[in-house]
Design brief:
The longest helix has 19 residues. It is built from 18 helices and 20 strands. Helices cover 41% and strands 19% of the residues. The radius of gyration is 24 Å and the shape is globular.
């Protein structure tokens, strides 16, 4: 064991007494050197999405001390960057293990530092937090969540005054403040109940939540079109935060036949029926699919625990339920929003769709058909939110039409500045009913888009590299891909161009991302995840049809995996 890690371990064993769960865990580590090393080899990284890590004892874990230290650093940042009138922070949390505890811990630190805390009295999703930041004129906001990660994870997302996840510049400043702090000696606390009594902590009024729901309703693009909302919908919040807002928006919009997946209805941070509560993953959708089949539903919706992602399934021509990918759902929504707004005469003068660089390029063709420009940004919805802010500063906020990323995150409207599964669920149901009124399914419409613009297959594969050795291994793999460059030739496809975003490219900030542009309108993007110990590969293949695309894609995947697992 390294001396630093041994010293940290001894300090935590002595001082980490605030959470009774931590000391027994620390004592167990003594006989497990690998576990101890992973818990202390680094401080839990404060990166592009704040904190995210395994719940437990140690400097590299999510616990009351890493949360307290981060909150103290964020407090100092707020005090430095904003006038006292903006010393206000919104707090929300999801259903995960210790989420309420971490939210109250953060609130205690903020209040002790003279920052007024406005906190949801019950768990609320990401979009409600983003909305509250803007609605209540806060200097910042935090959301306690690990989004779609497995149950052993939790996290801490930080938002700026525009309701967008904190920018790279802000992240750097906050990190510097955090790194200067001792988690046991330098963090100020106040008792939570005392904070409430003194008015330093207050609960967000119900009227703010209602205002959010009304803002979602405003995103309808039906206009004069008549639709029949008599459709059967199965919905699963995956034991997270989506139940209250999604059911409310659907009910108030006239969807009366909504059945909730009972086993996944109530908040439960253990996620007993889906260990990986991510609608991108087929297993997470399996129980919802069973319900859809049992009750012959027209549409299945499932939102992740913090309700910023939504996955869907619909019946195909054979009556079987078919999952629609994040890219495909985004394409359908872009086409629906643009076509309806064009028909209603509500497209702005200079319309814009914003997507990430790993999201399907087919969107650009769809948007161009309606005279809508496409802006590409780095992976992470905060970069989409950042572009909305820039439009706003230019007096062009109305130009924003839609933003999305392939990982099931969508946003219509500028009422929030993060992906919003509430508005996405609302618009998906509206879109479903609109096409149904025309005798079309969503799969029919998707096929129509492929006929118009050519078939495009987009796939994502993630490879886990846990712990300190895994982190080093991912760095080595990224270096190897950069070294190979144009000689890569995955699946026998010639590399036409290598785009390395490490030093910043195309006006975007630096990022550990490499994109290989392939012949025949294909591409490969490789990047380490910013929130999980995973290396991600995004493969795009264009072909005459799906079968041919799958053959090419599997060849590319096989070649990439040879390099990834190469010793």
């Amino acid at each position: 064991m390294y001396k630093r890690q041994a010293a940290l371990y001894a300090e935590w064993l002595e001082k980490a007494v605030a959470d009774p769960d931590l000391i027994p865990e620390l004592k167990q580590m003594k006989a497990d050197s690998a576990r101890l090393e992973d818990a202390f080899y680094r401080d839990l990284e404060f990166g592009t999405a704040g904190l995210r890590g395994v719940i437990g004892a140690g400097s590299n874990r999510m616990n009351v001390y890493t949360v307290g230290r981060t909150s103290q650093g964020l407090s100092q940042y707020i005090q430095k960057r904003f006038p006292p009138a903006q010393w206000k922070i919104a707090v929300s949390y999801d259903s995960r293990i210790k989420s309420r505890l971490f939210a109250e811990t953060a609130a205690r630190v903020f209040a002790a530092n003279g920052i007024h805390v406005v906190m949801y009295a019950q768990l609320m999703p990401v979009p409600c937090l983003s909305f509250a930041v803007r609605n209540l004129c806060c200097g910042a906001g935090i959301m306690i969540t690990a989004s779609h990660n497995p149950a052993q994870y939790n996290g801490y997302k930080v938002y700026g005054p525009d309701g967008c996840q904190i920018t790279s510049e802000g992240t750097t400043e906050i990190l510097a403040a955090i790194e200067a702090l001792d988690p046991f000696a330098d963090v100020e606390y106040i008792d939570f109940e005392e904070g409430l009594e003194r008015g330093l902590i207050s609960y967000i009024p119900e009227a703010v939540y209602t205002a959010f729901i009304e803002a979602v309703k405003m995103q309808s693009v039906l206009g004069k079109a008549a639709i029949d909302k008599d459709v059967s919908i199965v919905y699963s919040p995956l034991n997270g935060t989506g139940l209250k807002p999604v059911l409310r928006i659907l009910s108030e919009s006239g969807y009366t036949k909504v059945r909730v997946v009972r086993e996944q209805e109530q908040p439960d941070g253990t996620f007993p029926t889906c260990p990986y509560p991510n609608p991108e993953i087929r297993e997470a959708m399996a129980l919802g699919m069973d319900y859809a089949e049992k009750y012959r539903a027209d549409l299945l919706l499932a939102t992740d625990p913090d309700c910023d992602r939504v996955g869907i399934a619909v019946k195909n021509s054979a009556g079987e339920y078919e999952l629609i990918s994040g890219n495909e759902t985004g394409m359908l929504l872009v086409d629906y929003l643009c076509s309806r707004r064009q028909a209603e005469g509500t497209l702005p003068e200079d319309p814009l769709v914003i997507k990430t660089i790993v999201t399907t390029d087919m969107v650009e063709q769809i948007a161009a058909h309606y005279g809508v420009k496409t802006c590409n940004v780095l992976t992470g919805f905060k970069y989409i939110g950042e572009q909305i802010r820039l439009l706003e500063e230019q007096g062009k906020a109305a130009s924003y039409v839609f933003g999305f990323e392939e990982s099931y995150g969508y946003l219509a409207g500028t009422h929030v500045r993060d992906k919003d599964a509430v508005v996405a669920s609302f618009l998906i149901c509206e879109m479903f009913c609109y096409y149904k009124a025309q005798g079309m399914s969503l799969l029919d419409k998707l096929a129509e888009l492929y006929r118009a613009y050519g078939y495009c297959l987009n796939t994502l594969y993630s490879y886990t590299f846990a712990g300190a050795s895994g982190f080093e291994r991912m760095q080595t793999i990224m270096e190897d891909f950069r070294r190979r460059g144009g000689a890569l030739a995955p699946g026998g496809k010639r590399v036409l161009k290598v785009l390395d975003y490490a030093a910043g490219l195309e006006g975007l900030p630096p990022a550990d991302v490499v994109k290989f542009v392939l012949e025949d309108h294909g591409s490969v993007v490789i990047r380490p995840s910013g929130t999980e110990p995973k290396l991600k590969t995004y493969i795009t293949v264009s072909a005459a049809d799906k079968d041919n695309a799958l053959v090419v894609e599997q060849c590319i995947k096989a070649d990439l995996e040879k390099l990834i697992y190469e010793k």
